[in-house]
Amino acid sequence: AAMRHLPYFCRGEVVKGFGRGSKELGIPTANFSEQVVESFPSDISTGIYYGWACVGNGDVHKMVLSIGWNPFYKNIKKSVETHIIHTFKEDFYGEILSIVITGYIRPEKNFDSLEALISAIQEDIEEAKRQLDLPEHLKLKEDNFFHLPEGKIVNNH
Ligand code: ADP
Ligand code: MG
């Protein structure tokens, strides 16, 4: 069921999140606005996904993405957060983030400790890197979606 909507193309502005301290953990997550999240299929499974991401008209990088319940809205709305596997010189709040979600890793989980959470995320990142090198995922890195003018929203591609 998690795979039904994949590959999923999405483009939108990066907004301030709710300060869960992702950056302090070394894994900053670029949050999409509520409006972009609302445009996702309502039945898309929460959990950890991977794919490709590009900020503005910059390079396309590997990413891991979480679709989760948004604590700010008492867990009745979702949040969509992208960790790009690349070191950026500066934050990019307000910029347009383009992503294509190509695969699913696992459902959301609760962790007993911060260490357990961080090591799970490190494993997700390693899994994403491996999967994205496979031809069926790698080919989407070159998709025209990443070269279209930003006005063209290509959900349901
Ligand atoms: P917030 O709660 O505002 O989302 P985070 O701690 O999750 O704060 O940090 C996210 C911000 O960090 C992004 O909006 C972006 O501007 C910046 N950032 C820097 N490097 C990355 C990266 N590799 N992946 C995602 N966001 C990054
Ligand atoms: Mg974040």
From TrEMBL:
Pathway: Cofactor biosynthesis; FMN biosynthesis; FMN from riboflavin (ATP route): step 1/1. The keyword Flavoprotein applies. The keyword Transferase applies. One of its GO terms (biological process) is FMN biosynthetic process. Residues 3-133 form the Riboflavin kinase domain. Its EC number is 2.7.1.26. SMART domains: Flavokinase. It catalyses: riboflavin + ATP = FMN + ADP + H(+). Its cofactor is Zn(2+). GO terms for cellular component: mitochondrion. Keywords: ATP-binding, Flavoprotein, FMN, Kinase, Metal-binding, Nucleotide-binding, Transferase, Zinc. GO terms for molecular function: ATP binding; metal ion binding; riboflavin kinase activity. SUPFAM superfamilies: Riboflavin kinase-like. InterPro entries: Riboflavin_kinase, Riboflavin_kinase_bac/euk, Riboflavin_kinase_dom_sf. It comes from the Eukaryota. Catalyzes the phosphorylation of riboflavin (vitamin B2) to form flavin-mononucleotide (FMN), hence rate-limiting enzyme in the synthesis of FAD. Essential for TNF-induced reactive oxygen species (ROS) production. Through its interaction with both TNFRSF1A and CYBA, physically and functionally couples TNFRSF1A to NADPH oxidase. TNF-activation of RFK may enhance the incorporation of FAD in NADPH oxidase, a critical step for the assembly and activation of NADPH oxidase. PANTHER family: RIBOFLAVIN KINASE (PTHR22749:SF6), RIBOFLAVIN KINASE/FMN ADENYLYLTRANSFERASE (PTHR22749). This is Riboflavin kinase. The lineage of its organism: Eukaryota, Metazoa, Chordata, Craniata, Vertebrata.
